[in-house]
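Researcher: Going back to the complex we discussed earlier. I've cleaned up the inputs and rechecked each line, so this should be the final set. Can you rerun the prediction on the complete assembly and write out the structure?
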Amino acid sequence: MMQPLAQTASSLGAALPDGIPATEPAAASRELSLLGLVEVLLKEPRRLDDLNREEARQAELMPRFLAISLASFALFGVALSLILHFTPPAAYPHRLLPVPRVNLGDSSGLALVLAYSLGMVAASGLCLPSFYFFALLAGVKMRLSQIVSQVMCSKATTAVVLVGILPIYVAVVLGMVVFEADASLLETCLYLGLALPFVAGLAGVRALYRGVSAMSETMPPERRCRRACFLRRLTVSWAACYTAVSPVLIYRLWETLAPALA
Amino acid sequence: MSLGTSVILYLLIGVGVAVAVAARGGRRGELTFRVLAAVPFWPLFVPLLLSGGEVASAAEAGATPSPQDQLSAAIAQADAELEGALGSLGGWAEHVLSRERGRIEELRTAWKAQAERIREMDRLLSWPDPELLSPSPSPLPSPPGGEGKGEGGEATPAADRLRQLEEARRQNRERLRQLRAEGYDDLLSNLARVRELASLIHLAKFTGAPAARAEELVASIAAAVEGVSDLGWQVNRDGRPSGVRGQGSEVREEGPPVSLLTPAP
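Model: Rerun complete. Updated structure for the full complex:
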């Protein structure tokens, strides 16, 4: 029964008859490199969902998503440290929530970098059991490894979008510092900067919903339609849980690390 | 327990997980990153380690493609050609694409769903199909002219019922096999039809055809989703399989599953 399938598939994937080689294998191997993965995240998220659904590839993809996330959050931390270092004392965030001082002369800037890099990712680890139980409650049959893979894919999407909007934010805030903008306005902008990963996180939530929906593609359409509202609720619950945990974790890490490293 | 003790305990577990990650092997640079990342982020690595089974590398997966991968490859090839054709509409008839984008996405989803259903049926059909043991001989005398006969040529109600159930099961299995073959043929013909339409888009573009022709071709591609989504695995409200319809094929009405619990009409 499978013989015609093999023949058809091989003929479909073979080189073109006039000797022009098919380019698909090269594209497939490029996707798996770190930069290739970033490219796929930006250009072909649907293909990424397909890759992510393959169980054999999850163990390969997850560390790469982690590497992308860590690198991007570290870059964000460095940019924010620079901005906070050059912020006038009057505009330093203190009204809503006092944040630890950042001084490039000592290692207190490193505390911010570590707090964001570790906090954003470690919060996912803390929320994993909740994610698993939410998925069970929503009736989505996902293993913990699949949840990890989806969550890390969402995190990598957030990280890439964050790096994308970071230059605009840095340009705006540095402009405000240079042109001596009103202290309260600058402070508000700095608070916005501290929350920037959560703004970028909206793209991650979208990626998460797309990934979870892709997981349910194999259900018959009728069941999938009945589950659609549950998938939305599942994604919202995950996002709410993560959004509650991660700022607390980041702030506590920053507060703990800053005096130790200063 | 103080914070320091908790951190040490956490990192100790992390070291254990890192050793397990290192034992899985891999390329040197990547392995180093995995091992280092596993120490602080071990909760993310544990589910992957516990997911079980050998994690085949992409190279290994490519070297020995399973039938499922070949079906996926056929879909990927048709999808790539479709994407290429739709990409070539830029500057010629892109408004058509923006209108039909949703339905084309539906078509892709339907391909994958149908491929998964075929794999599922393959899995079911690959299960062994042994015959059950014959029922124990009945002390009752055989009914006059009765067809069910036990051991030694004696007709028993139990033997008769068993034979009928086995026959019904065989018929259902055969129906499943036919359904799988029809679904498979319909999927392949749908893929081939979309590939043909994709090549027609290229041809129309380079022969200077009007944008209306592109509109017609893209609408035909979008309409192909009907061919996939109406395939025989859909179940209607009665719980009976609906008519099997494929690309360019007639509607074939299928009866209800054969069962002794459902009297034949």
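Model: Worth noting: Confidence is low (pLDDT under 50) at residues 54-67, 145-151, 232-255, 258-265 of chain B.
Researcher: Good, that matches what I expected from the previous run.
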